[in-house]
Write a structure and sequence with these properties.
It is a single chain. This protein has 211 residues and is α/β, with parallel strands linked by helices. It contains five helices and ten strands, in the order βαββααβαββββαββ. Helix 3 crosses helix 4. 38% of the residues are buried.
Length: 211
């Protein structure tokens, strides 16, 4: 999953307003997700050009959060990417993960724990466990942390976010969680653009080719 403010800048391909990243092969695990939800996600998403002629497109996901049908379906949809799994807790990085994660936790009957970005807010008073995240697709490095007392050896964790490009956050959070004794089910995202053969089990409702 990728850190930042939820904006994806993508070069504009010649003659068509879609990301050039579409050319890379990607995997999409639909699981038990209905075709209706995938169609809604595609219909309520758009690419915008911040400056005419800039050759850059920015993904606008605000339509997802505005649609009550999408919000109603996201929790069960993302949970369904790992059928049969029974996680006790959902872990999501800020910022957008704090919106999506609780929807999945509710659908699973699980708890929710925030993974905070270092430096994004005032220091948290409780003891934290931190992990370094390798540079993302923009070249930015960061640290993510969770409240140490909220995870333990009896927990099974599902990582949830909206978008994954490199898998850097998923890998870092997996290391953090296993270090605390938890078992990691995998990572569920709305859009998975990670290359095939990623070391971590990242599954998406959509691929980059879908939008």
């Amino acid at each position: 999953m990728d850190p930042g403010n939820g904006i994806k800048l993508t070069p504009r391909p010649s003659g068509y307003g879609r990301s050039v990243r579409r050319a890379r092969a990607r995997r999409c695990h639909h699981g038990s997700v209905s075709a209706d939800l995938r169609a809604l996600l595609r219909a309520t998403f758009r690419w915008t050009e911040p400056e005419p002629g800039s050759g850059l497109l920015v993904s606008d996901r605000s339509g997802w959060w505005r649609s009550p049908q999408v919000l109603d379906g996201l929790g069960p949809g993302l949970a369904g990417l790992f059928p049969g799994a029974r996680p006790t807790v959902v872990i999501s990085p800020e910022v957008t993960g704090f919106l999506v994660g609780p929807l999945v936790a509710r659908a699973l009957g699980a708890g929710f724990v925030e993974a905070y970005r270092e430096g994004a807010r005032r220091p948290i008073a409780e003891p934290m466990t931190w992990v370094d995240v390798p540079a993302d697709h923009r070249g930015d490095a960061q640290r993510l942390g969770i409240r140490t007392h909220l995870l333990g050896t009896g927990d099974s964790a599902l990582i949830v976010d909206d978008w994954a490009v490199t898998g850097a956050q998923s890998g870092a959070l997996t290391s953090l969680l296993t270090g605390l004794g938890a078992t990691v089910v995998g990572t569920a995202v709305i859009v998975n653009e990670c290359p095939p053969g990623s070391a971590h089990d990242i599954r998406g409702l959509l691929t980059g080719d879908d939008i």
